[in-house]
Amino acid sequence: MSEQHTLLEELLATALVEVQTDDLKSLNDVRVKYLGKKGPIQEAMKAMKGMEPEARKEFGQLVNTVKGQIAAAVENRLLELEQAAIAQRLANETLDITLPAQNLHTGSIHPLQQVVDDITAFFRSMGYEAAEGPEVETDFYNFEMLNLPHDHPARDMQDSFYVDPHRLLRTHTSGVQARTFESRTEAQLPIKVICPGKVYRRDDDDATHSHQFMQIEAFIVDENISMANLKGTLQALARHLFGADREIRLRPSFFPFTEPSVEVDVSCAKCNGAGCNVCKQTGWIEILGAGLIHPNVLTMTGFDPQKVSGFALGMGVERIAMLKYGIEDIRHFYVNDLRFLNQFKR
Ligand SMILES: [Zn+2]
Hints:
Helices cover 40% and strands 20% of the residues. The protein has 11 helices and 10 strands. The longest helix is centred in the N-terminal third of the chain and has 40 residues, at 53-92.
């Protein structure tokens, strides 16, 4: 064994001792000292160049072995030190999992939106699609296309918020009806649409009226749609909203865009028809207006009233919510009092 061999063996032995240091910095120093560019291993590799081929091969193998062993020792020690550091942290830090969690402040869905979602889901389950329309609507779609001619009292400036002579804040969601009918043809029947949205009227604000409120309108156009279809839908809706044993009553009414038109009453859920303060001793509560779509509306939007027919129904979301939850003042919905809103957390 040559002198160089002996030196390498000694080098390895010293390195393996020095590697057993206790901190990361001195471990890195050891690595640089032995394996770095100016270290003894690199020196030994340079020395190989002048050797005979046989000797160079043998010596080269030894250098590589020594280099590998030092590198592996450094790597092992590094792992040991890291694991020791983790063990140290685990021992020092304690986590008390019995401490109460931080309060998460979650909001809740507004009661009006809950009613909208509920009614929308009900109609969707019967194959209706949801549609939306602009809140600033033209006179044409808000009135004219719905069989409300120029001299109709509902068009009075007193009742509506006009933006300019031809546009206003919509007074009902029925404009969506006209827009929908116009965009469809008889080949696309049946048309089954539900349309929730905000509407605006110049009512005086009091306990049951607001200048802005929400409406939901549902309408269908197909062949052979009759009052029987309307009544069945209303019955199912009333029971969905107010309970399985509710009855409905239809009273003749007038709306320009339906013929015949009806007001729909539901039997009072509180007194079951006997008479109480909620139903003003009548046993019935008015919930919405409906009717068969007026032939003029169908004609104006390109449908032949001899071939197709339809019904429409519209209700005030606030009114439904007030009845459903026993709320006596409509203004509770708009003042954002958390004591009120928190009662509707689901
Ligand atoms: Zn009652």
